[in-house]
């Protein structure tokens, strides 16, 4: 047994029973060890959950970083969609991620913000857009996964159409992107087109 094995089994347990039911007792039983032996790798359950959240984000964390040749709009959309897909890979993925601190991802976050700034996005707007997109995505997935966990009890009242979660996400994401693009107009760029730095 090693740290990576513990995390992998903890994520497997999460997928089976959900976040509420994840416990060190159940994890120890799953691993075939005594519960105190887990403290060698994680001093508290909070430490374990933080490690699980970081590992669950691995698919998104391995996505290619933007390059100067990329269009910032396309990248912003793709990056946020990648984040959503990753949250949906795990049962209660959004709940696991919510409140976690991306300490191991700070260099990637800085790279992304610097890319937006280099593309012409004001730095403060770039930071707030990344934060807004992240929190919007977590909220969308929280609602989607909560509905899934409720099963039949999540039936909507008569006459109320069911929510198309992906369509709702895409519509909200477009609003965030359009709001960010409009900041170019305030910065003196009539088209928002900074491909050739014409407005800089």
UniProtKB/TrEMBL annotation:
Gene3D superfamilies assigned to the protein according to its UniProt record, in alphabetical order: Homeodomain-like, Tetracycline Repressor, domain 2
Superkingdom of this protein's organism: Bacteria
Keywords carried by this UniProt record: DNA-binding, Repressor, Transcription, Transcription regulation
Protein known as: TetR/AcrR family transcriptional regulator C-terminal domain-containing protein
Domain HTH tetR-type: 1-60
DNA-binding region: 23-42
Transmembrane segments: none
UniProt xrefs under InterPro entries: DNA-bd_HTH_TetR-type_CS, Homeodomain-like_sf, HTH-type_TetR-like_transc_reg, HTH_TetR, Repressor_TetR_C, Tet_transcr_reg_TetR, Tet_transcr_reg_TetR-rel_C_sf
Keyword Iron tagged: no
Keyword Transcription regulation set for record: yes
């Amino acid at each position: 047994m090693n740290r990576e094995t513990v995390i992998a089994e903890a994520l497997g347990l999460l997928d089976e029973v959900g976040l509420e039911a994840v416990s060190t007792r159940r994890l120890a039983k799953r691993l075939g060890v005594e519960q105190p032996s887990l403290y060698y790798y994680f001093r508290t359950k909070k430490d374990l959950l933080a490690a699980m959240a970081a590992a669950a984000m691995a698919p998104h964390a391995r996505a290619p970083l933007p390059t100067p040749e990329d269009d910032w709009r396309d990248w912003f959309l793709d990056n946020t969609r990648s984040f959503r897909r990753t949250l949906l890979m795990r049962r209660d993925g959004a709940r696991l991620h919510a409140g976690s601190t991306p300490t191991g991802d700070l260099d990637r976050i800085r790279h992304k913000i610097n890319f937006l700034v280099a593309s012409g996005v004001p730095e403060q707007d770039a930071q707030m857009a990344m934060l807004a997109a992240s929190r919007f995505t977590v909220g969308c997935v929280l609602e989607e996964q909560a509905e899934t966990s409720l099963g039949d009890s999540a039936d909507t009242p008569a006459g109320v159409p069911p929510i198309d979660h992906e369509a709702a996400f895409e519509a909200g994401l477009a609003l965030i992107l359009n709001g960010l693009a409009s900041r170019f107009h305030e910065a003196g760029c009539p088209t928002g087109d900074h491909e050739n730095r014409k407005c800089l």
